[in-house]
Amino acid sequence: MRMVDLIEKKRDGKELTTEEINFIIEGYTKGEIPDYQVSAFAMAVFFRDMTERERADLTMAMVNSGDTIDLSGIEGVKVDKHSTGGVGDTTTLVLAPLVAALDIPVAKMSGRGLGHTGGTIDKLEAIAGFHVEISKEQFVDLVNRHKIAVIGQSGNLTPADKKLYALRDVTATVNSIPLIASSIMSKKIAAGSDAIVLDVKTGAGAFMKTAEDAKELAEAMVRIGNNVGRKTMAVISDMSQPLGYAIGNALEVKEAIDTLKGNGPKDLEELCFALGRQMVFLANKAASLEEAEDMLKEVIRNGKALEKFKEFIASQGGDPSVVDHPEKLPQAAYQIEVPAKADGVVAEIVADEIGTAAMWLGAGRATKESDIDLAVGLMLNKKIGDPVKVGESLVTIHANRENVEDVMAKIYDGIRIADHAEAPVLVHNIV
Ligand code: URA
Ligand code: CA
């Protein structure tokens, strides 16, 4: 087989066989096929697309390019949740203990954040002592004992995707549905869960700017998952504004605790129920999504979800007393208000602008090597659709530096006040 013939075949809009796709991915992973040929191939896929079968084959070829996690030592249906990336997205911190409180095993492999989106591991490390550097054996044992554990991403998971994603980034081929869908699904499948719930974000802060594109991506991923034997469902949710009020690591832990107590922001709560009920349903613990949602509400009401969060923190070396005493979380030295410059209604809180402002404070990483400050971040005091009076605080900046003029200017860039505006629909679609 020659790579040039396969590029030509895809360029001409023909369907590649399983063997041909394996040849490309294996050869690329081993370094036998050069970047320039794979660039041309990615561009051909960008214009010619892939059939459902090709997408599943590409996904599995990338899964098989590296290590896969074997979760067969964990009893029960393991359900994973994945978000395509948002600002102030605190859902995993809430969902993991919430679902585990219903005896559904949550075996979570997670990464650190890059850019303006935060990683779940960074957030959890805001809890003193909490660590994710555990062996695979410990991980399986913790899930069997507590129904919940989080481990850092293994180094050699889907190396083909790592290489291809970096190449796509510099060849204008990121934004292709078959390539995004296979990239995301390969990582989820390699991580070993039986079922997968996807949160596909749409809006300014997301990859997919429109709900239609997001739906197409969601459908592509759900089909790949189901075609390779993992039960998969998706929710399409709004990321035109940040989720909840808190953006920043310790601030989001506090927000998760509030939500597990039943006092969380309404949008965060709604999304947690929308995703959580799919997780419970796919785990075969409920006969319908409605029943699943009732079960989730009950473990918040009776305190079991909060207890599970404490148990989880303690089991990975963290101090569980932060749940009752969130003031023990890292605190920033300065709290600075951002006053509204006009009367009206908040019409826009552009998620990626606000995320960037939080990153400048040190809440996120500008490069992979940057250190982050767990205490800093932003608390929104208003959301889209809220009325506001001049001088009222739009946002509270939690900073460890006194001069935050740059951050304040960025926040003003991201927030628009108008005469009328309505809160956006949070959950667009269920796939
Ligand atoms: N996230 C991924 O992991 N892969 C893509 O291709 C796009 C977003
Ligand atoms: Ca949040």
Automatic annotation (TrEMBL):
The keyword Glycosyltransferase applies. SUPFAM superfamilies: Nucleoside phosphorylase/phosphoribosyltransferase catalytic domain, Nucleoside phosphorylase/phosphoribosyltransferase N-terminal domain, Pyrimidine nucleoside phosphorylase C-terminal domain. Keywords: Glycosyltransferase, Transferase. It catalyses: thymidine + phosphate = 2-deoxy-alpha-D-ribose 1-phosphate + thymine; uridine + phosphate = alpha-D-ribose 1-phosphate + uracil; 2'-deoxyuridine + phosphate = 2-deoxy-alpha-D-ribose 1-phosphate + uracil. It is an enzyme of class 2 (transferase). It comes from the Bacteria. Its cofactor is K(+). Its EC number is 2.4.2.2. Residues 345-418 form the Pyrimidine nucleoside phosphorylase C-terminal domain. GO terms for molecular function: pyrimidine-nucleoside phosphorylase activity. PANTHER family: THYMIDINE PHOSPHORYLASE (PTHR10515). Homodimer. Catalyzes phosphorolysis of the pyrimidine nucleosides uridine, thymidine and 2'-deoxyuridine with the formation of the corresponding pyrimidine base and ribose-1-phosphate. Belongs to the thymidine/pyrimidine-nucleoside phosphorylase family. This is Pyrimidine-nucleoside phosphorylase. It comes from Paenibacillus haidiansis.
